[in-house]
Amino acid sequence: MRGTDTAFRQMLRHDMAAGLGRAWFFYIPLILAVFFSMAAFYRLGNALMEEAFQPTFADYLLEFFKGMKIYDKNRQEPFRIPSMFILFHLYMAFLVARYPLSDLSGFGRQVILHARNRAKWWNAKVVWCIVNAAVFYLIVLLMAFLFSLAAGRLSAELTEAVNLEVSEVDTSGLDTGLFFLLALLLPFVCSAALSILELAVSLFSKPWCGFVAGAVILALSAYFCHPLLMGNYQMVLRSRAVSFGGVESLYGFLLALALLLLAYFAGRFRFSRYDILV
């Protein structure tokens, strides 16, 4: 037991170092994208608002995580892909496709052969997926904090006028707690579940297949507002609390938990029979 615990700690430390610490430069594009997105929001607000534009910390987060309105093809409106939403989640999927399985050609394979316990390798990679998702959201939080400090107000309260005129989101029915649940907690849980699903799919096929699966879910979620499409729970504008016909947040948590458990055990089962010497 002690040997397997040591193997897990070794692999987890290795994953944090190799997949995060020594791969820090992979997060630079994300930092730049978030920066330019929030800068564009500030410029737009200054152009639209007659009074002094001072968005709060929460306003910056809403703009970034709002996603897109429910698409209704009967209204003959153009389908506009929420570019920042897609890029944020696709880049997260790219990093999941890039690192975990590539570890089998190096340190990970050595530890597995030495400890003879594949479950520890899988568990370490699952933890890495969750931490990687957390880093993405922390970067957005940090950038929103800096922007609200330098070009706005450091407040967790939403500004209804800013939200409606600039972000085009009616937040009159949102209190602070519900907003942070819809904008941060639920999307993060969904991102963690989708990352583990991508990793599991990659074991049954190839890393790029897991990436494609995640991209398809995002694309379908943008076009269809359906409770079984995970991406809808990652957009504030798709919530029932904001839009008529939106999805229920409780179902999102249940779906994410079910998907996470299914992906975890399916991936663990598959890896127990995976040929690591190929």
Describe this structure in words.
The protein has 278 residues and is mainly α. It has one domain. The protein is built from ten helices and no strands. It has helices at 2-21, 28-48, 57-65, 83-98, 107-115, 118-150, 160-165, 176-204, 207-223, 249-271. Helix 1 runs parallel beside helix 6 (118-150) and helix 2 packs parallel to helix 6. The longest helix has 33 residues, at 118-150. The protein is globular and about 65 Å long. The mean pLDDT is 90.
Short description, anyone?
This protein has 278 residues and is mostly helical. It has helices spanning 2-21, 28-48, 57-65, 83-98, 107-115, 118-150, 160-165, 176-204, 207-223, 249-271.
Write the layout of secondary structure elements.
Blueprint lengths: L1 H20 L6 H21 L8 H9 L17 H16 L8 H9 L2 H33 L9 H6 L10 H29 L2 H17 L25 H23 L7
Provide key terms for this protein:
single chain, 278 residues, mainly alpha, 66% helix
